[in-house]
Design a protein that fits this description.
The protein is α+β, with helices and mostly antiparallel strands and about 140 residues long. It has 5 helices and 4 strands; from the N terminus they run αααβαββαβ. The chain folds into 2 domains: about 5-45, Arc Repressor Mutant, subunit A (Orthogonal Bundle); about 65-130, Alpha-Beta Plaits, CATH 3.30.70. The radius of gyration is 20 Å and the shape is elongated.
Length: about 140
Amino acid sequence: MEIDGKDLAVINVLKENSRLAIRDIAKLTKLRPSTVHQRILKLKEKGVIEKFTVKLDNKSVGESFIVFMLVKTKPSAMLDRIVNDKHVKEFFGITGEYDLFLKLKFRDVEEFNDFIIKFRKESSIQTTLTMVVTANVKEEI
């Protein structure tokens, strides 16, 4: 699907606040409300907009301990367990020395420790490199 300037204007407003009324988006983008509505429907239908969601405050929801982890694995069927783990917020297959890149969130270091002990027991895990976030400067959905 080709995304034009009007689509980008609508998308940029939605990225800031997807709860805005169509009329408010129309005012900000200088488009007619009916145009905004039709473009949002088209963007959803074509899969450009996958879903509308919320950005939560990590501390308020008990996920202020953030960890990035590189994982080297042997081939296995463990991917489903990783994808479905509540602590795994983002999951990427990558190239290079490691195979996976994970973004994880925990309540505290103890919860992370429990996770990592179980995680490393997986027979398909060869090596991990863990980086603990010390400052959350910018985080988007």
